[in-house]
Amino acid sequence: MKYIELHARSAFSFLEGASLPEALAGECAKHEMGAMALLDRDGMYGAPRFYLAAKKLSVRAHIGAEVTAADGWRYPLLVASREGYQNVCRLITRMKLRAPKNEGHVDEQEFIGNSAGLICLTGGDEGPLAHALAHGGIASGIACVQRLAELFGRGNVYIELQRHFSREEEARNQAALEIARSARLPLLATNGVCHALPQEREVLDVFTSLRHHRTLATAGRLLTRNAERHVKSPAEMARLFRDIPEAIANTGILSSRLEFTLKDLGYQFPKYPAPDGATEMQFLRARTRDGLLQRYGGADEKARRQMERELALIEKLNLAGYFLIVWDIVRFCREKNILAQGRGSAANSAVCYALGITAVDPVKMDLLFERFLSEERGEWPDIDLDLPSGDQRERVIQYVYERYGKLGAAMTANVITYRGRSAAREIGKVMSFESGTLERLTKLVGSWGYKDASETPDRQFREAGFDLRHPQVRKFFDLWRTIQDLPRHLGQHSGGMVVCQGQLDSVVPLEPATMPGRVVVQWDKDDCADMGIVKVDLLGLGMMSVLEDSIKIIRDDYGEAVDLAHLPADDPSVYSALQKADTVGMFQIESRAQMSCLPRLRPKCFYDIVVQVAIIRPGPIVGKMVNPYLKRRQGREPPDCLHPSLEAVLARTLGVPLFQEQLLRMAMIAAGFTGGEAEELRRAMGFKRSELRMKSIEEKLRAGMTRNGIAPATQDAIVQSIVSFALYGFPESHAASFALIAYASAYLKCHYLAAFTAAILNNQPMGFYSPAVLIKDAQRHGLRVKPIDVTCSEWLCTLERDGERDGENFAVRLGLRYVKGLSSAVGAEIARQRSARAFASIDDLKLRVAAIQKSEFTALAEVGALNFIGGHTGPAAVHRRDALWQVERAARHAGPLLESPSAPSSLFSPAAASPLSPMTADERLVADYRGTGLTVGPHPMAYRRAQIKGRGIRAASELGGLRDGARVRIAGAVIARQRPGTAKGFVFLSLEDETGIANAILTPQVFRENRLVVVEQQFLVIEGLLQNQEGAISVKAESVWPLSVARVDAQSHDFH
Amino acid sequence: MAFAAIHVPDFMLQAVVRAEPDLHGRALVLIEGTPPLEIVVAASATATRAGIAPGMAKSQAEQFRGIEIRHRSSAQAHAQERSAHAALLDLGWSFSPRLEDVAPDTIVLDLAGLQVLYNSEGTIASELARRARGLGLSASIAIAAEIEPAIIAARSFSGIALIPAGQESERLGPLPVEALSPSAELLGTLERWGVRSCAALAALPVLDLSERLGQEGVRLQAMARGEIRRSLILAEPAGSFEEEMELDDAVAELEPLAFILGRLLDQLCARLNARSLAVQTIRLRFDLERSPEKNIRTLEEGSRQKPGASIYENNVTLPVPMRDSKMLLRLLRLKLQADPPSAAIKKVVIAADPAAPRSTQGGLFLAGFPDPEKWELMLARLGNLVGEANVGSPELMDTHLQGEFRMDRFEIVLKEAELARNGKSAAAQEPATALRVFRPPFAARVELREECPVRIAFCGARAEVIAASGPWRTSGNWWGDDVWQHDEWDIEIRCDSVSAGRSASGAREQNPAANSEASLRDGMYRIYFDGLRRSWFVRGVYD
Fold first, then answer.
1. Distance of residue B145 Cα from the nearest chain A Cα, in angstroms
2. Pairwise CA distance, residues B92 & B150, whole Å
3. For residue B56, which residues of chain A lie inside 8 Å, CB to CB?
4. Which residues are CB-contacts of A468 (< 8 A; sequence separation ≥ 6)?
5. Sign of the CA dihedral with A1023 first, then A1025, A1028, and A1032 last
6. How far is CA B47 from the centre of its chain?
């Protein structure tokens, strides 16, 4: 007998379902069920994924939701038509937006006039009928279904029967049968599915415990009674309901009534109101013409032709409004002096360049427009805008809200899933592990990039002190593995915004974000894209803030105006720095891996930076493309374009495919893919979850290449090139956008070091290096960095005139924000009070900044920020311990009389010098790192240099002068530890000393033998053979041991 | 005036080695915590040399060869530490009645007058160290004119340290300030000041210090200078309230044992009486003779003792503190009857946890309540008759597993008060169909047709199932050891005429506690199939 499951919850019911929508659809297909309905709690969260997964499996995906009523029970609603879908989306939006998170409900009255296209079931345990029966017996049950029939129409109410082998439920079923007979309403069998497979009941129990803040042991009858809420086969359901066959038969009938699918969303992009009665297209053409004149001076014929071609396509696809809306956002940014730069595939478009959306000239760079927009694909173009992170980005977001209305624009969601540590912590909690165990288990789930074959869970657990044979530990591990990637809650995507013509809430339910003034759609950005909703990514980029802040500082302090759009294109100092890998702090080219590649690639022009940005990516690394490219660039290997037909595509990268666009073209040329098929290939590349999909595309590729007469060996090479990009494809246009920012950051660092350093310090945390490393690097480049001082430091780092230097005329004064534990309010108050009148003494500061806590006061004293208070300078300055001595007294509560600002100062005993000894250099170093995480004094290694010189330890700066293969010893503070997934267990360390940064490579064996030392010690000595590959210097470690240096609390960039 | 401080370094380890001398010199590790995570809290010198450090997990320590691991939380380890501490106290009292019990690992003696017996303080210290060794403890001894310097020195210097009067500051000066046990906050301040030694602390101007660190700082400085003076806080020799008796001939009968217990209880209650205290918990411990032929009787199922155990322990916690030795004896007799030792007794130890006696005046408007002592006695008598686990108030457990309950301590006042608070009474409860539960359930044989029971046989009787409703499926506790999976049926049966007569005796044989009436009649029953044991059972009968 045909049975359709019409009441299933997925894990997108957040802690009330245990399986992903894909798993439910998969089970459904396995049982040859033609359709299934997903009814998640108060939302459509899982609907797109369910729809797409079901479509692939040829299963019809019915959509609906369980909508919470005032008393906590839920209306199970199935969507029959688009009107029904819009009704339920609007109902959910209303209830969500008017109540705190997870507390909303609909009122019965709201269904009046809004129930068209909806089918209401009477539900299971939590349905309206169960609620009525429990509170008033049969009479109340009859009244309930009659009311439902009034609200939804007689033909749209089904009496739902579920059978999970429960006495109470069966008693309810008997009552329901009686009610159905008396009310003459149809019966419907469902299984109230909460998980795909029986064994997933355990996950459901864990979720139930989490939801109720209980442990499994104390959750009692809150847990499920049994494991029967899984997807059952039609045969099994028919057997269960053999006494009521019509309940089964009705599932098929009802399913055929549910015409709506998510294909039929009815989404429309908003229209741009062009002025003076012009059409959108006319207005766009005018704006593009203006841009063309501005960008190219109007003389570039190639650019004009390209633009015409693009505009023709834009017109044909009716996308003018979309371009104008993005242009409008960029215009707003320009007006408000907010840096904005388009990236992603938009950089392939000359129209975007002309409109000022992107800064990359696609005509000059010969970028592939089809990657951005093609007639064949029939999808919205994707434009991402990089904005300065923080307040500036928020201004842009609020502008979009204002412009399109609260229900016309929303952020896309970010589905937070159970992963690694959070999953371990929550499972440990519900399993009643005590805190020590919990902490260890949580730590155990580390963020190691690479796991070799011997790193089995068993071994990892054993090393952490657990035995996987212990049943509880084993159960913990199994559960932890099972709940990976299940949704935990809905967050807000960092920048994705969707806009809609009219009411977005009739397309997808909206809900309030945690951040005030923000509204979020219930789908994440991939779901939005899959459903054809236009998304504009307004992404916050730390480096954009640094650039913007640098420009401001340069304008205010240097009195110069820097326009990023008109930087000198071939600045020699920039390329010189890049060729020497002197790139600390520069966008995208500062990591250890980038630094080791730069001296070999030796960028000489802007396109080299584009390549540099793209080449150190998992795709080219896994595809073993880095070395061939570098060899060919150095002329040590001839370019090889795999096949003569691919020369046009691959020549610019010397035959090595580095960019996504190249792979698309390769597929089109070599295998005869159409644009659409190439697009399918691109999607498969970015589609993390389907190796199967990749496999089928590979077969298609090979078949195409065979048809084109390409030899099997060449086919292998081409397929290898393409498959390597499966997960990590990087488009050329994207690399070009990043390269522009990288160039700008390099330019500012080379020419305005003080401004750039102050700006980057003010935007931490960001980038690859800690502030300590950034400061040491700046100091090595001749910048003077002055310590924190309450007599002149602001909250942020600022510039001060520094007449002592010849080169850079400015010094950076560290801001109070670097004092650990000092609140921003107190920091700002210190600066405010000081600007009114200098502090006369430590007591004076305490009196005037009343909110300062003792710990904050102590922290200031400990880092030397109070040394110059009262106008003491030079030898007259108090030392840090004097300040600590005074602070200890000043911070004590002296009573209201003595604490009054008007109290005569003679009441205080004079602040005599303390009996404490000044800090030694080592102690100051320790205090600096403890109090600020950095030092402006000598590098810790400088203090040890004299001692370690005798042990044959070389400084980082000496390594360049040594021959390849020389045996060396290096030592320094570990500033980065990395074990990338692409490096087969090799570990890369960066050691910093007072002269620079030295890199070391550890083989898996050396790492295994020295694991604890490598992972835990802050200062290391490494001995091994020097490798100097065309200026990329590293030490291949043979032995590692700790170096005893002052116990500084230095930060390193580990295993990210 | 002089004081000697005696400190036992690595006290936890020494306590274990003292009890198990074979472990001396071995790689010994003490762990604490509950599985699955147990952590090393102490490691002997040999173990430390092998690479074990406190904080390691047990399973990590186990990877080292030849490591002896002891659990510090075990009753045995606690007893060993108590015993080592008692030995330390004995050592002190053997020298002077004026003794301060500073910590489990440290005591201080007043040496006033001892110079007459011993030539010098050095001799006293050597003698103390010698006697400590005799007790299986290796102690550090420090003698000083004041108490605190002596304690600090004993904890900081190994071996013997003699500090002449007036030289305290000089001798303590090089010690780190941590030796003064300052609070973490104060220690942090001193560390920031660069004040790391007692000498540096002692050198700070006292007024300035007082302004900054308050009285705690001043006190700490006085300690650093060796200037702090205080009186000895005398330890009471009988603080543990323990009485014991070694028996020349092992006792195997209850009567003579009761006589001995009575004597010990009299002494115990007299001591408690002298200090205005009463007994809250009695801890009974017997050393048993191993000889099997002198066993009093074989162990019953459910007893807490292990067969062949050489120690018998039983604790009696009283509802209210009391010190009526006769009442206590009656309680102990009942306890021993209910849970007798497995062998003849060689040594009797009775310890009492003291508490303030009960005030006799209850609330003015409290309802009449049985005398708590008599009430406890009655519960003990009942427990003796039916087993302790079967006395109390049954409380249903929050689980889908049918009929699971636990026994709560019977507390009539609380229950009534609770009902009153909730505004409910027993009469207000809605009547429900009663199910008489068979505990334990009867095993049954069930014949199925189309997955539905059609015939059943249990207790020697056979019956036809004339109506069945089910299965009602429950499962749970999948995360623990006691996982269950039941398919229940409610069935109506009609007994076969030939088997009806036999079933009464059969039921009683299988389950003496069963209600014979219930297991015989035609009627409605609840049966279940245990999915893990693959067997059928009869859970109960509907009234």
1. 30
2. 15
3. 465
4. A457, A458, A461, A462, A474, A477
5. negative
6. 29
| The pairing of beta strand A996-1002 with beta strand A1032-1042 | parallel
Which chain A residue shows the shortest CA-CA distance from B484?
A: A226
A538-542, A592-596, B357-361: which range is least confident on average?
B357-361
- The residue type found at A649 is V
Residue in B174, B322, B318, B336 with CA at minimum distance from that of residue B255: B336
ipTM over 0.90: no
Chain A CB contacts of B58 below 8 Å? 465
pLDDT value, residue A363: 86
Mutation site, B191, B212, B396, interface A, largest A CB count within 10 A: B212
Indicate the pairing of strand B106-110 with strand B3-7: antiparallel
* Torsion angle in degrees (nearest 10) through CA of A648, A654, A658, A659: -30
pLDDT at B499 over 60: no
Q: Which residues of A touch B210 (CB under 8 A)?
A: none
Strands (E), A440-586: 487-499, 510-512, 519-524, 535-541
Contacts of B185 in chain A (CB under 8 A): none
CA contacts within 13 A on the Cβ side of A658: 28
Evaluate if residue A447 carries a pLDDT over 50.
no
CA distances, B505 to each of A984, B295, B514, B516, B519 (Å): 74, 35, 11, 8, 10
**pLDDT band with cut points at 50, 70 and 90 for residue A805:** low
Scored b (16 or more CB within 10 A) or e, A935-973 reads bbbebbbebbbeebeeeebbbbeebeeeeeeeebebbbb
Question: Of A57-61, A384-388, A433-437, which range is least confident?
Answer: A433-437
Confidence band for B487, pLDDT divided at 50, 70 and 90: very high
> Residue B277 contacts by C-beta under 8 Å, 6 or more apart in sequence?
B241, B321, B323, B354, B355, B356, B357
Say if residue A684 is exposed, middle or buried (CB neighbours under 10 Å; 0-12, 13-18, 19+).
buried
Q: Which of B214, B397, B478 sits opposite A202 (nearest CB)?
A: B478
Rounded to an integer, what distance in angstroms lies between the CA atom of residue A711 and that of residue B66? 64
Domain B242-355, CATH class in plain words: alpha beta
C-alpha span between A339 and A545 (Å, rounded): 8
Q: CB neighbours (10 Å) of residue B296?
A: 18
Three-class secondary structure assignment of A657-707? CCCHHHHHHHHHHHCCCCHHHHHHHHHHHHCCCCHHHHHHHHHHHHHHHHH
Nearest to A728 by CA among A592, A625, A578: A625
CB A218 within 8 A of CB A278: no
| Per-residue pLDDT at A565 exceeds 90 | no
What backbone torsions phi and psi does residue B67 show, to the nearest 5 degrees?
-90, 130
Quick one: DSSP state of residue A796? S
CB B56, CB B41: distance < 8 Å: no
Q: Determine whether the interchain pair A889/B212 forms a contact, defined as Cβ–Cβ distance below 8 Å.
A: yes
Q: Do A437 and B37 touch (CB under 8 A)?
A: yes
Distances B220 to A894, A916, B145, B174, B217 between C-alpha atoms, Å: 22, 17, 18, 15, 5
Q: Please state which CATH class domain B3-74+84-165 belongs to.
A: alpha beta
Domain coordinates in residue numbering, chain B: 3-74+84-165, 242-355, 435-542
Size of interface A-B (CB pairs under 8 A): 104
CB contact under 8 A, A862 and B212: no
Name the closest residue on chain B to residue A930, using Cα atoms. B192
Asked if A465 and B471 come within 8 Å (Cβ–Cβ), the reply is no
Prior bond to B9 cis, omega within 30? no
pTM more than 0.80:
no
| Residue B430 C-alpha, separation from nearest chain A C-alpha, in angstroms | 15
- Dist. CA A670–CA A370, nearest whole Å: 17
A992 contacts A956 by C-beta, under 8 angstroms: yes
The pLDDT, as a whole number, for residue B427 is: 45
